[in-house]
Amino acid sequence: MAATHTDSVPVGNPQAAGIIYVQGVPTPETRLTLGGAISVSPMAIGTWAWGDPVWNYKPEMFDDIAATWDTLQAESSGINFFDTAEVYGKGESENIIGRLLKKNRQEGKPLPIIATKFLPYPWKWSYPSSLLGALKGSIERLGVDVVDLYQIHGPIHLRSIEVVADALAEAVKLGLVKSVGVSNYSIDQMVRMHAALAKHGIQLATNQVEFSLLRRYPETSGMIAKCHELGVAVLAYSPLGMGRLTGKYTAENPPPSGRRFSNYPMTELTPLLAVIERIAKEHNVPMSAVALNYTIAKGTIPLGGARNPDQARQNVKAFGWRLSDKEVEELDGVALIGDKGMFWQHG
Q1: Is residue 230 part of a domain?
Q2: Which parts of the sequence belong to the NADP-dependent oxidoreductase domain (predicted)?
Q3: Residue 343 included in any domain
Q4: Strand 301-305 relative to strand 233-237, pairing
């Protein structure tokens, strides 16, 4: 399962460099433009753990999350991009972000960019009404008038991509969203969505896929290059392998069983973790920063996770430096390719 090296500079549309992915060293001041509509930091924060019992969330954890929110948006961190979904904690993640946005308003602070997602269950047959109804629910929980980035959570809809695209376009035309994206789409599905939205004069902003040193499939399949060619930014979820790439877990202390993405036994990751640890020491950064910097070097925007201020500070140590081509090649050599899934992960 060892990876084959590919160049650290993604192929595709060279005009995308510096616009939808970082060219050079990522910094807290770096901003990328998605869908021609929103300006975001080179790293986002995924908020599945904010309010979801899968991550053992309890209401008393809110104060830690609020402190994390503030730490991430500090000038020294520069994070202005948060990703959630209607199904995270059955809407509780959106509720939490809504409370935090209200806090920003009360304190006179800028509002960050918020992305959320619509889960197109197969039984949701009526479009655009099912999508617009879900969107309005998200808007209410978030306490906003417009969603910055609205994404289709996965390619599980029974209606055609063109029908779903028409619904997304309607959301844009109604002024309910600024930009639109997809998640877990294959190359072919993404290309179809891009073309269908283009008929409405709308740029597909993003495709969110699992991408990390434990799953290089979006790169080796050509997904990342094709996205760049079309001006579609790649959002990389689970860039830390649900904690497996941080150094926190070992064969003797494995991650909780519910963390299903990149669910490899820790014993299989020993060679990879050894290389990450060595590179981290050479750069004087945590292992998590190496894993995140790798995804940035590959032309994606990672969605790091943080539930306390310390984790937030660890994440932003991926800024201010960049892996060398030699280091990327060495990591490629011990990384895992992964695969696509039949039901969910097509991309």
Answers
A1: yes
A2: 43-334
A3: no
A4: parallel
Which among 316, 105, 312, 331 is positioned nearest to 212, based on CA atoms? 331
Q: How many CB atoms lie within 10 A of CB 193?
A: 25
Q: Which of 3, 33, 39 has the alpha carbon at shortest distance from 15?
A: 33
Domain assignment present for 214: yes
Catalytic residue among 21, 57, 88, 249: 88
Q: Hey, is 219 helix, strand or coil?
A: helix
Q: How far apart (Å, rounded) are the C-alpha atoms in residues 51 and 65? A: 10
pLDDT (tens digit, 9 = 90+) per residue, 17-60? 789 999 999 999 999 999 999 999 999 999 999 988 877 788 89
**How far is residue 131's CA from residue 152's CA, in Å, rounded to a whole number?**
9
| Rounded Cα gap, residues 139 and 222, in angstroms | 34
| 88 catalytic per annotation | yes
- From CA 142, how far away is CA 147, in angstroms rounded? 9
CATH of the domain at 227: 3.20.20.100
Structural domain boundaries, residue 34 = 14-334
CA distance 99 to 95: 6
- Domain tally, the chain: 1
Strand partners, 45: 82, 304
Residues of the chain with pLDDT under 50: 1-11, 259
